[in-house]
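Data availability (excerpt). The following record was deposited with the supplementary files.
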Amino acid sequence: MKKIVIVGGGFGGINLAKKLAGSHMLEVVLVDRNNYNFFPPLLYQVSTAFIEMSSISYPFRKMFQGNANINFHLGSLVKVYQEQNKVEMDTGILDYDYLVLGMGTETNFFGNKNVMNQALPMKTIDDAINLRNHILINMERADRTADVIEKEKLRTIVIAGGGATGVEIASMGSSIIAKDYPRLDKQGGKIYLIDGAPVLLGPMSAKAQQEAYKVLHKLGVEIILNTLVNEYVDDVVTLSDGTKIPTKSLIWASGVIAWEAPGLPETAIGRGRRILVDAYNKVKDTENIFAIGDQCLQTTDEKYPNGYPQLAQIAIQQGTLLGRNIRNTDDGDWRLLSDFDLAKSTEFHKTLVAQVVCIGYSGWIYCCGGR
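Predicted structure:
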């Protein structure tokens, strides 16, 4: 019996485990730092108190009840020992025949320690709950205080990052303040959305970018482009053009970096700390280690020479196909993502063409075409 250890229970890891479920020839251990799977695209709705965390999360153990060959192990990766076929977690050491890394990404603060210590990230459920509580408490304090300067600091929210997460938080935050705190909505303070690019929603179509700008502007969001957040000290955000914004809330949605995987060959680490893999998702310069999803960088498809984008549908298909390949190892029937799933499934292409952003408390959704 072969033992497969999957580190990371995101879109890729879950679909890999599902594909391996029920096999009498495979023992599967799914490892994650949380004991639940969650749906990252809706984190912003948890962070803005629109839905509860239970609406977007589900326990791994319940998910795989009835699958005798799948076990769950709570823990975080410490180091991979290639020669020994072992992986060290902060909760113990596991041996493996195949190791699959699908830990995704973490917030990238670009080395700015003050921002890392003071800003509010938005990558996990814990982050979302912390952000929700922080904003709601600040709004309540702002509603009570008679100090005009303190009220403006509490009421002002700065969001660094004009991607989908930043746009959605800005729109929902603006709508919630207007609806739930009508007095504050008329008493100074703003929501600022800052991005270093010349447009919002950089990877999306020009139509989506223009519409997002238009809707946010109508909601009263102050959009500042071609500008970076340089510092956050003593409740003051300093921008790259020298502008200073007093605020008690800096939300950081300005970038991600792949989770580190100590023990892998240095030659296997690419840009953004993503793990370089071949056409079968096998990690470069290894024999039985694979990486899937946002954590990997797969440049073998000539249609995507810079690698597949970090999207859920890609992680799902990589996990599903790797599971199929592992199950068929004895037959030697391994297939490629580019000539198997992508060729036969329109979902991958739809993911790259269709773009959806939710803007506003009322659930306004905008879809558009174009890559």
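Summary of structural features: The radius of gyration is 22 Å.
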